[in-house]
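sry for the spam today, last one i promise. struct tokens for design, 447 residues
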């Protein structure tokens, strides 16, 4: 098999809810306090992953994290005779803090880590750096479980290197692959890695919404991955886009192969950014830029529809690339019209299809948020934990598992229910067996 780009989708966890915990994420803020459906959410995600696997794409899964995170609450001084009692105490004393420790935000696997393929790294191995996600409390507790998941799935050190998170300090704020794109002639060839940062970590930031990725974090990841400086580009995200709700670069930009599909407002200095990419690609390939003008898709519509938070894919049987967009892209007038014009032309994108991931979208995560892209040659693919690859058997097992363990609805009034702890743990304990992650994978299994 040739080198492929595998998509590893984050499984939506049993405590999926609308806590409105992410500043700058307009969908999250607008839906705060709504009633979520964890069961519908996980089934939507599984259906999307199965759809790609059925099409012949390489599709894997990443496990959800333990929530509520009782060990973390005990570290903060909450106590009780049982873990359910600890949860009750935390909800009673500080509902906001409890909500942070219940969030299922690890489902957005684009924030799990930054990944560099062996074609780009000095040692030929695939490198992973788990994101520290320090900008928001509910995400800052994800890193150590993310690292553990990556180590269990990509365990063969002859092929993979899983680094530690960057320091938990504001100058090294790191949000993972949501602020990183890779361009190349094809997935197996050496490419150009583009790191998009929101702010200089050593400079002041005076804006309504936080810039979550720093230049210093991006530079540190590139160094630790052993990337060639001449093939690595650092670009500042547009402040105007961040202020409009593009809290990650993947809300306004996506890539596949040599194609960069982006909004006019994606970068602070667009011309300099594109020039830098072209220079870094010299001798390797010719970048193809597909720019969407603000006159055709206003930035507010780009954020509402998540047209760029789509998966841009090399689809088996299609002569041109395919965009897998959320249904909201079709339902937004300007983006639907743009998509029709896009595929009618003779550019590199020949088809736009749609996926229903509304449970994720209401918290600010489209199809691209739900997946971590990992380029693998055949030997590396064979070295991945085989239990995480999507196929008919795994899909059947996981849909049965979700219907058995997940609540149909979860709202603010359910937050203090102590049975949530045991319910979630029963689901995750069974999942470790399905995905063969080991009986000590989750924190509660090691206590």
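last one done:
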């Amino acid at each position: 098999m040739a080198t492929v780009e595998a998509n590893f989708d984050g499984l939506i966890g049993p405590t999926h809810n609308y806590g409105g915990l992410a500043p700058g994420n307009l969908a999250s803020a607008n839906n705060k306090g709504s009633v979520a459906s964890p069961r519908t959410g996980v089934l939507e995600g599984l259906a999307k992953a199965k759809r790609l696997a059925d099409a012949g794409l390489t599709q894997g899964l990443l496990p959800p994290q333990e929530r509520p995170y009782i060990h973390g609450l005990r570290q903060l001084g909450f106590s009780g005779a049982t873990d359910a009692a600890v949860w009750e105490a935390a909800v009673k004393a500080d509902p906001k803090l409890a909500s942070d420790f219940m969030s299922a935000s690890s489902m957005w696997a684009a924030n799990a880590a930054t990944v560099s393929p062996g074609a780009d790294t000095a040692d030929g191995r695939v490198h992973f750096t788990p994101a520290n996600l320090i900008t928001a409390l509910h995400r800052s507790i994800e890193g150590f479980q993310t690292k553990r998941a990556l180590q269990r799935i990509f365990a063969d050190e002859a092929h993979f290197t899983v680094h530690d998170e960057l320091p938990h300090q504001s100058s090294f704020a790191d949000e993972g692959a949501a602020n990183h794109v890779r361009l190349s002639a094809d997935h197996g060839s050496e490419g150009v890695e583009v790191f998009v940062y929101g702010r200089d970590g050593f400079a002041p930031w005076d804006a309504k919404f936080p810039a979550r990725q720093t230049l210093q974090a991006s530079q540190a990841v590139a160094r630790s991955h052993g990337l060639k400086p001449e093939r690595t580009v650092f670009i500042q995200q547009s402040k105007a886009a961040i202020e409009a709700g593009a809290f990650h670069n993947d809300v306004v930009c996506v890539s596949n192969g040599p194609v960069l599909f982006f909004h006019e407002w994606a970068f602070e200095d667009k011309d300099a950014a594109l020039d830098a990419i072209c220079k870094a690609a010299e001798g390797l390939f010719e970048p193809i830029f597909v720019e969407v003008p603000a006159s055709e898709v206003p930035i507010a519509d780009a954020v509402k529809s998540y047209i760029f938070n789509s998966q841009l894919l090399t689809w088996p049987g299609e002569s041109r690339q395919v965009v897998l967009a959320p249904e909201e892209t079709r339902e937004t007038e300007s983006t639907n019209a743009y998509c029709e014009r896009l595929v009618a032309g003779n550019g590199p994108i020949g088809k736009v299809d749609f996926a229903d991931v509304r449970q994720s979208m209401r918290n600010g995560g489209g199809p691209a948020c739900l997946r971590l892209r990992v380029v693998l040659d055949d030997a590396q693919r064979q070295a991945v934990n085989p239990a995480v690859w999507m196929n008919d058997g795994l899909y059947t097992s996981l849909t049965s598992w979700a219907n058995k363990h997940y609540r149909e609805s979860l709202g603010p009034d359910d937050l203090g229910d102590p049975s949530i702890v045991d319910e979630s743990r029963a689901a995750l304990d069974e999942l470790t067996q399905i995905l063969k992650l080991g009986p000590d994978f989750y924190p509660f299994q090691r206590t």
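The CA atoms of residues 11 and 107 lie 5 Å apart. ok im logging off now
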